Protein 1
Amino acid sequence: MVAPSTTEPGSRSLKQLVLGRKDVQDLSDNEQELPPDLMTVNMGPSHPAMHGTVRIVLTVDGERIVAGDVQPGYLHRCFEKESEHATYTQVFPYTDRLNYVSPMINNCGWAMAVEKLMGLTGHIPRRAEYIRVIVSEMSRMTDHLTCIGASAMELGAFTAFLYFLKCREWLYELLEKVSGARLTHSYVRIGGVGKDLPENFHADLTLCLDQIVKIMVEVEGLLNNNKIFRDRMAGIGAMTKEDAIATGCVGPIARSAGVDYDVRKDYPYSVYPELEFDVPVGTTGDCYDRYLVRIEELKQCIRILRQCLQQIPDGPVMADDPRVALPPKAATYNTIESMIRHFKHIMDGIKVPAGEAYAFVEGGNGELGFYIVADGTGRPYKAYVRSPSFVHLSTAAQLIHGHLIADVVPIFGMINMIGGECDK
Amino acid sequence: MSSKVLDALKAVHGGAIDSLETQHGDAIAWIKRDHLLAVATWLKNDPAMAFDAPVFVTCIDRLDWKPQDVPPGPQVYPATAGWSDDGTKARFEVVYQLRSTTHRYRLRLKCAVPEHDARVPSLAMLWPAFNWQERETYDMYGIQFEGHPDLRRIYLYEEFVGYPLRKDYPKEQRQPLVRRDDLPINPIKSPAAGHGGHR
């Protein structure tokens, strides 16, 4: 009987060429086991679980990750280069597009950095400060709602995702009423905010918060003790307190590992000293603690917002300082001095005295800072953003080490890498 | 609070310091390049300093630095550090921002770096967060971090020519990764760039 294979010494079958191995029947006994070599797998840049676009080159031993090279940069839009060519006010739309799930906090951070350079810190009208805190906390809520909702969905809990995105939509609707735009608000100005809160804002926000509290009870019931959710989250991607500090982690990720650091408490800014709230701190530093910290922060946000609504004073929303405030429209159209000032303000930008400053706020993901070097003109000489997502992403390779490929999904979800902020 | 750090730094590492300043409440210490690693190690390990948390690394390109409306005075702005005798300023300043979790200190280290010798010691071994941030600074400004474990471009692709955040890199410059023959070739306009033109 003639063997069907016509392989002669020296020639190779198509299968051998493609697979680079012999046919099964040609293998010796110990060769028939699976190849022990490490394998390289590309995850991303366009992968449903990679929030935004990031590529990980995984080296896997079977299903277990032995090395991961995380490569950001697919969403790089030259924030710093563009900012150097824009006036200080024109940078606000760029900051909206950094962390696009909580743009208001970025707006506030940029405004505070410029105000620090101009010596305006502490001279912002109190109503404007309260409005900034209100919109910042609403933004923090949208950030956490998105993070938890999307992560839950990636683990199969679609209901939680829909519930939380509905909540986020209510907040977006309110922010749209406030600023005029649903996502890219550009609402904050240097020296205050763009305009006062809309009518019925107090009632709308109170109603919205009451609804969110109810939804959160349901979602916590769905997730907190859900066996699948806990199995996928608990003990995954854990980080020690020392590692969290040394790798520069901040915000919910550092706090879940036991680092008691919140810019709002440790370096208080705006009117946060007048508000009562707690900073939740975790113990294990794994994905489940990151989830719990974010859930608790949502509750603290609601607490802050309720206090703000009670305490917010009446008054102007823009500092009465001709360096930063536009002249009133009536004066602009009727007096030549105001018209010239308006023109110079728009065309040349706000004149910021030469110097440098680093101002930081507690963003959705932690310390979000802007480092500005000013040269006395209307445009920043250098504008650097200290984006927490970038720092957190740099720890990802270490966090996924030793875990399964499937664990990359919850780890990435809970790092909450926002492409726009990470890639600048 | 921040002056405490500067005083201690002056007392212990007086010889390593070019100058000290405070701007808008931020403490800034200019360190000589050769001493940067020693000073940084001390800042991290000394219990009275304990700068355990890294914040950011970046660089300032002072190529066309012409500050306006600076009040006249004897001091050359920004600081006396980095100026050579002929009145020219070192082109780059590498900036390290540090934070101490125990003492809540904040400190900015600066290191003047001339263009022809654009290198500084890497601090990535002391603070792992600086690994990526030094890569970013290298990617954007072309600063060589000596002793960095893995100095590669991070945002841009390996084939990219030049360093985009340098002041002589034109904002309009395009470098598509995939060559498009229907687009005009757009060479770097400034002769000072010197990093080659369009691929």
Note: Chain B has a mean pLDDT of 80.
Protein 2
Amino acid sequence: MSTFSFIEATEWHCAGCDRPLVPTPVKVSYLHSVFNVELMACPGCGFVYVPESLALGKMLEVEQLLEDK
Amino acid sequence: MDQLQLRELEARCIQEDQPFCTAACPIHVDVRGFMAAMARGKLLDARRILDRTMPFPALIGRLCDQPCRPFCKRAEVGEPLAIGSLERYCVEHTDTVLKPPKLPAKGGRVVVAGAGLSGMTAALDLSRKGRTVTLLTARDAAGGSLRRRVDVPAEVLAGAVDLLTGYGVRLETDASLTAAVLESLANDHDVLYLDFDDLAPGLVPEGLGRPDPLTLALARPGWFGGGSLAGGGFSLIGQVEAGRRAALTIERSLQQVSLTAQRDLEGARPTRMHTVVDGIAPLAAVVPADPAGGYTDDEARQEAGRCLQCECLECVKQCVYLREYKEYPKTLVRKIFNSETIVQGTRSANRMINGCSLCGQCTVICPNDFPVAEVCRASRRSMVETGHMPPSAHEFALDDMAFSRSEHCRLARHQPGTSTSRYLFYPGCQLVGSVPDTVRRTYELLCAQLPGGVGLLLDCCGIPAHWSGRDDQFTAILDEFTAEVERLGRPTVVVACSSCLWVFGTFAPHVATRSLWEVLAELELPADRPPVPPTVLALHHPCTARRQPELRAGVRALCDRVGLATVEAELAGELADCCGYGGLMQFANPALGSKAAAVKAERSPHPGLAYCAMCRDNLADSGRPVAHLLDYLVAAGDEDDPLARINPGYSERHENRARLRRRLLAELWQETTAEPAGEATLPLVMDPAVRALLDRRHILAEDVRRVIHRAETTGRYLVQPGSDRRLASFRPVRVTYWIEYEPTAAGFVVHNGYSHRMQLPEDTL
């Protein structure tokens, strides 16, 4: 399965681990579909960051596609 | 929906029925399309339309006796179009554009005796179908009685003959046509057609009878006849129709199939087309400046431009939903059917099906009562049953309904200090969410004046479940409602919301209900009511009052009584628009919901008066001052000017419902309830823009509090160096919320919020 990358430089740091976010492979899922994507996440605790543009853009688009299947 | 239901539904929409001119034309020339092309000056396109239907366009275009013209709708606003003159103009200025193909020869020997226009037409049509046709005339040329007319240019008639022979018709002139010859021709051919227009009287053998009007069959097998003697006076286009009808009969006879089946669409006939001419400016016919020379190019364009391009679309003209999706009911149901029946792939109509407000305005407008709402709701039910309902369409609205019905908001009590109720006040969830204090004052008014005890039921009638196609859930809610009414001793339910009233009247007819407006009309209203505005208000009936004329009349009477000067827009009452809440439109398609509210608000230039809480708040959102009728009927509170109130939004509605329950319990029934504690008391600071943004994104204040509470208690959030801003997420159930906030002394300042449904690994933790 191919991996889509949504990594982008970000100023957000993980507060708990006090570490910058790094590109991380992540599995995201919706309605029985699973996608391998690359997102920014904390290398310590794994906190995954979803930027607003992704949530309201590509993610929403895919959610709606899956809802109409 | 199955195929049969689809066909029945499609047949109810008349948008694709023929316009009046085409229906009245014996051969159904597309006059509307012709006029559209002519009006654009596209003469070749116009000619192509004539070539497609007329057997001899150059001839018929010049001479047609236009039986269609008396049916032209333009006559109601001006004079009928000069259809014949424009066809003449077209064929005089163009050559043939479209030459219908000749099919491969397929046997079948046809003889046509008599070469009048019906014989010529039959010969041409059959020859194009690949039949071998011999056309005989006793005269020295084809044309029949046309040859006696002075207005038929010889070269035009010659052109028609060339067309016939070009398609392979064998024309025999000066033929010896006697009764004996006809007998022998009939023996030598499969079929014989007699064109009475071009046969000497007395030639026709005895015992043939008159041609059957449907098939033109004569009393002997294989003999057919038509033309001027077939009936009535001579009509040129009637001759053409006879020839065309005969050709179809003969083709069927040669194929040995039914001569009569499914022929009801042939010939001039009535149409169901419905075209409203109200508001169309009258236009007189364009008369050629030089009558002898006919139209100039400009005159022809202008005259064709008077065509109304008759169609129906009456529902589409008014419905924001049909316009948005660029459908009319016939195309809409087909798309719904295709989407429903798809086995694999995208159900492309889901969003469209969920976009309808189910308001039923189109059904009232439609001359055939096309039930768009029923189709859309049935489709939603089927989506729910088969697991294909997109979760995001209605979940937020259903969660809102569940909250209204939860222990935080629901309340059922007899009047304080009593143990029986003759009445039960049912304000409805949205009125409580919108104006809780007004609801309380209304309840107190009812308690003070109605005898026998007035109970209170704060709940939701379940209409969101009905609209979203969740019938099981809806039925369960209604069952709970009727059980509650039973438990309270079967009081008469006094209902403030027209949607609730419609639900109870339709699905729980055994429960006695009265509208609040009807009840208030009989009571003494408090003296300290807010002053009625000095201006005229547009009375906005809600869509759910469409089928409740007595409700609308009661509201009007009440307005008169308190001195509210109201007017109603042209599309009000039975034709009222939906504000966007109906059918959960504003949840499935928020942008369309806003458009619907704007359309309703803009039907009238006046400030508005609504008596549905959702209409009130949605219309307020669209920027028009609008009050709720109840604002002017009960004692004034310390709220804003009724016309200036803003839409409280979803979060505030939640809080209003929960707060009203707590306060009523504490102050009227002296029952203490647990005050909100823990995360529910987390202090939030939001400026109006952020509040509106979160509302649009369906993120409630309680969701925000949950995210922040969890972030602050676990320490799991993101920070930006050199800033106090924090970003945290939390997925309570099906949606992950992200909130950007900042802790301050005044509380948590919320800067932004967004959400997604896609699940991250940590959401499953």
Note: Chain B touches chain A at residues 345-348, 350-351, 390-393, 715-721, 726-727, 729, 736, 738, 752, 754-762 (CB under 8 Å).
Protein 3
Amino acid sequence: MDGAGRAGVVIAGAGQSGFQAAFSLRTEGYDGPITLIGDEPHIPYQRPPLSKDFMAGKMDPDSLPLRPESFYEAQRIELRMGERIEAIETSGRAVFLASGERLPFDSLILATGARNRRLTVPGAELPGVCYLRSVDEAVAIQERLEAARRVVIIGGGFIGLEMAAIAAAQGREVVVVEAQSRVMPRVVAPVISAFFQETHEARGVRFAFNAAVTELRGAESVEFVHLSDGSMYAAELVVVGIGVVPNMELAARAGLEVGNGIRVDEYLETGAPGIYAIGDCAWHPNRFAGGLARIESVQNGVDQARCVAATIAGKRAPYDPVPWFWTDQFDLKLQMAGLSSGFDEVVVRGEAASRRFSVFYFREGKLLAVDSINRPGDHLVARKLLAAGVEITGAEAGDPGFDLKTAAASRA
Amino acid sequence: MSFFSKKPKETVSVTYVSHNGAVREVAVPVENTVMEGAVANNIEGIVAECGGSCMCATCHVYVDEAFLGQLEPIAENEEEMLGNTAAPRQANSRLACQLKLTNALNGLRVTTPPNQQ
């Protein structure tokens, strides 16, 4: 479908998913107008490095944008940076910007992302209490980190641990406060939590588990973090990484169904024909989750963008890729394939002591997910096994002599 | 755009050849990777889905033989990823995200495979 002379596609949100939707529309041959609207002042950029190489000062800031500015001109993608959509007129097929400008669309892609869950305890608004999602926030943390001696990280998830690793590597005293009893509790098995905790502790990071923050105190900026057990930690910098909330208010105001995100079908389409939701904000049917899911990852954002772009370009197919994720902490690269929640059996392949091993998760004998530490080959094969639904047993997974790659090829 | 630096940088020439023979020669800052040079210059044929984290094996390139000896050796992670590229691995296969440019690599020539995924 060539779309020329029509209202075109409006994309709400210029993060990884919104960018990819614009990019893929062109590679799929869509020729109509594309407008990419984002409320940050910067052209679309990568977020993963913000808590990894960019934060550590190991990355050229010029490499942060997903594509140079010239790309958008060449591809006839109109960038509207620093703007926000205030309302959607579903019947009239148009959006309204904050300025009052009305933009008609044939298709609307909601890639509105998510925002950080905020700490609500007393003192949470003190300067020096930072969050990380945008490049501006990353730079603010970098500046504070430079001058800080003691850092408290609230939340032992990916962002918290990546920040802890960078701060510890730079010689700061780091304490991670986690509400549950182990790190990354929602996503990895206890064996991996224990391994990452040991690695962090060996580099000087301390942990406070089963701990809730009750108050932050300080005169001009944050100085102390108080916990529910009565303990207290001094800090010049506090980074809060306690999860995100999907940006779905725009969709809700337009009467679209929302729950844990913007509700879409297997084609990522909302109840209003021609209006789609992708990425962190999309609450979608996912066979790997065994039901509706909202997934916060580069893979999910990119693949959902490709799926919707193909649909708009006339190649409609349901969304079905294997979820995958990664995190870098110190010298460890943890790569996750599939969704492990609900597992009843865990098999370790390799030795944790070698710092290169994978964990296979099963439920009722069926492979759910594989987490690999410094074993990228296992990770890539795992994605193939899961995509094709290849069955392997726990005994095979744990047998170092069993060739996963051959199994993926021969049993698919 | 304020956080994206505007300082002039020392560059080297890198030539990207597509699998069907299209040739693009571009200037890429020293210390940047061959993958970053491709993305910044809209070179097709390098997907770089993970943004250069040696995660996805979608920035596979074939390096011109003349430069093979001047590259950093293949690390363990890259070795494993190269075993899982979409296009066949050859003796001169590398992941572009792991190739950091130095002055010695001025004139580097790489060929992109027909598919990355």
Note: The first strand of chain A starts at residue 9 and ends at 12.
Protein 4
Amino acid sequence: MRLKAAILMAVVLVATACGGQGGPTATQQATEADIDLTGPVAITLWHTQTGGNVKALQDMVDKFNASNGKQITVTLSYQGTYTQLYQKTLSAIQAGALPEVAVGYESFVADYQKADVVLNLDTYVNSKKNGLDKNSLDDIYKTYLDTVRFPQFSNQLLSFPFTKSLLIQYVNDDLLKEAGKSTPKTWDEFEAAARAVAKKGADGKPVRYGWAAPTSASTFNGWVLSRGGKLMADDNKTVAWNGKEGVDSLKLLDRLIRDQVAYVPKGFDYQTDFGTAKVAFVQESSTGRPFFVSSFKQPINWEISGLPQTDPGKAKTVQYGANIIIFKSTPEKQLAAWNFVKWFNEKDQTAEWAVKSSYMPVRKSAADTDALKTSWQKDVQGKQAFDLSGTAVPEPNVRGQQDIRTVIEDAITAVVNQKMTPEDAMKQAGDKANAILRDNQP
Amino acid sequence: MAAPAAAPRSRARVARRVRIAPIGKHLFLIVLAVLVAFPFYWMVTTAFKSFFEATQFPPTLVPQQWHFENFPAAWAAAPWGRYFANTLLIAAVVTVGELVTAVLAAYAFARMRFRGKGVIFVLFLATLMIPGEATLIPNFVLMSRRYLNLYDTYWAQILPFLATAFSIFLLRQFFLSVPNELQDAARMDGAGHLRFLWSVVLPISVPALVTVALITFLGAYNSFLWPLIVTSSADVRPVQIGMSQFRTENGSQYHLLMAAATLVIAPVVLLYLVAQRYLIQGVARSGIRG
Amino acid sequence: MPMAARTSSRRRRVVTEHLQAYAFLLPAALILFVFHFLPAFGAIYISLFRWDIVQGPFRGLDNYATVLAGARAQEFWLSLGTTFTYVLFTVPFEMAIALAIAYLLFGRLRGRGVYRAVYFLPYITATVAAAVVFTWLFNPTYGLFNSIVEAVGIGPQKWLDEPTGLFQLIGSSFGVSVPVWAAGPSLALIGVCLFTIWHFVGFQIVIFLAGLTNISNEYYEAARLDGANERQIFTKITLPLLSPTTFFVATIATIGALKAFNQVYVMTNGGPLDSTRVVGYEIFKTFFQQGRIDLGSAMAFILTGIILVFTLVQFRLAGRRVHYA
């Protein structure tokens, strides 16, 4: 076993070393994306999937290995949490021992690319021989490709969608009905509905809340977008979420928490709270669906809706999730990796992955697959979430965004703990975030 | 510090008349034991609960229904057999190796005279003071093909742990309190350092050696981050990675998580119970010596 | 002539002893050198450059200046303060509790083996699993601590999500407003401290027990013959003869607490509002969230320096108080 691993390792490393010098084979062809794969190619994919998703992913990889017809073998390797994967990748960059493929967030790509190790996929997407045609490209929701286009790195396409989801709203329709309200379309309607649902017991303590608001920078970004705001200035040098939309969002949260209509849940408790009808609204990732369902003690009438909006005609929310990064190696391995990534995002595969993992399918046409149609008969809310795909907007993918997320979350925590006014919290957070952006200019 | 003084005093006062004091002692120990062991108890019982019972408030102290199926569910989630075998192999080699290097070095620091002793000792100790984050990247580079070429092997998980300043320091403290008369007597008999170490120091240090072995084994058994970073295939990976992979990405499936945690901890509890016999044996032996 | 012969034979003995001692040290020294010192030199090298993912220009001691007096100084000193609070609220308590229990478990006592096993459980429990249990105990909605607290008549607490200082919380429950400087460590930090104490008490008990076992029975018997009572035996025999072990535990626990990272990472992630952000966490964040391995390395060596000073002071202080046989 060790021998096998050692040989594999040696092959990988020799290949990496050769690739680093930009082999002569690449220049003879039109581009290195247009070559033919001849011999067998083995590539490794570092991932972070746990629980049932591992099996689903492994099944799909096995299928690819058996059916790609080009002797490409993909090996999955679990690398802990995203932070641990980042730690390892950072080390691997120093050691020159990167895998061919790894999953990661946009902020990771922005960091890795300082070392110029991430493969620009434009060449591959545009390749006549191995790329995607216009129809196929247009079939992918624009937001998922926008998020992996990096303005700080001359707008290159660095990585491709992998585990995508949307910020949506979980709504308990029974509670709304009881309160005589319908699904809110605007933030004003939302506030009224949340207040109508909230209930206090005889001792004055809340027994039911309108809104569970987990502290999350992505959710905050969604609030800003839904109020018509922007997240970044056009030149990407300063943040824009610290304006009126940000302040209004925090004011609403502050108000409803003071009146005990809203609360900040711990961890994933909002799932259990929603499942036991202790709260009517949760704004969270669409991927949590199965966990919400598994916490239902009795059947609940519930739906997934978009976030409340200032202008429901121009609805917006954020999209989450990781992408799949191909590192520079040899033309053969790069092409093999691209073949896998392309295959994984084809109609049938993106549908299969969506069914098994509850992530979002990235293609519009996936809705036509039998797999998803069958799945949506049970998972009605999955379809409701999918129908919101067009409203999703990427979060900023600039360097420093990871730090800025902490700044945003600190601002929210300061407000909900009544340590700062929404205005002060936004001002301070905006200043901090802009300082981080200044420090991180590439 | 009030507690240790108070209990013996009360015992001294009444010990000859009635044996009430042990009851007080037991009471104190039981109350603390409940506090200390509670998280452990909570983990084991939660492992048998249903999802709903596990998230119920107020919580139940004893499962209303025993869900044994949580364990097969947890067991099915990862190649645990392989992981356990790897961990036991790595932990055993590390424990034996570290014991050897630590005994030798600690003996030198405690009972031999040589130039630079103080400085070398502080240098050894300094290895405990550097935060692991700082050396992680250089250590990874060291393991890569450019240098030792040990990435994704057992050796990468064993070699760095074959000596620690922790064990050396601990054993040094014990070896220092071996009476000088014993060393003088051994020298009179013409015994060199190795003989004195082997036939006098080691036998009377059994409790300390077992303690070091236990702590080393546990450290190796529980190590997670370094193996994760320095391996990539399940063939050589340890059990804590299985535990981590079991973690549910997005949910509060506490009952299954606790079942996995219980599975992982069980072998160590057994090992401690075995080791404890030797700890007590050590007590008996040092009693004979006295 | 005989004088010269004696000194030369003594010198030969000294040389042999030296060689033998170095031989004894060699295996450990080799491992420590390759896997601790070499990487540390690597990290020092990194800390002298701009190394933002990749190696940049040489910066001399600029990274150290940035941490100590520049853009990162405020965060760094704040986290250092939190670290000292953390050490103060963990190490003495761990040691006192562990020593008390070990002393009780050492005497003749029915069920000693069972107690010993139970008290060792926290240390056996893997940090990840233990942290899950604790974050759950502290859970504001579903946790056991709030059921207890409410049963006693105190309102529910936010525990690990509570950035407010402990004294301020106590003050405000009596309607007294406590000034900011006297707010004390946040309830969240206290929670992390409780977790730490719980986790390490079992570890220290085992070491104290080994130390107690190492004290020869002769001393106790002699003291009893002299008519010493239990208290005198404890203060005049046990404590002094246990001092090498106590010194070891104090040193190791202090080093560990000054470096603490894992406990904070699994419990609070440095929050809420940075109230649990110790230096170890700050270093981790700089390395593996910001990718600034240059500044992270500089911080790590500043912390190493602080720990080294602490340890040397401990050695100096202990020099006269630790009794070896």
Note: The radius of gyration of chain B is 24 Å.
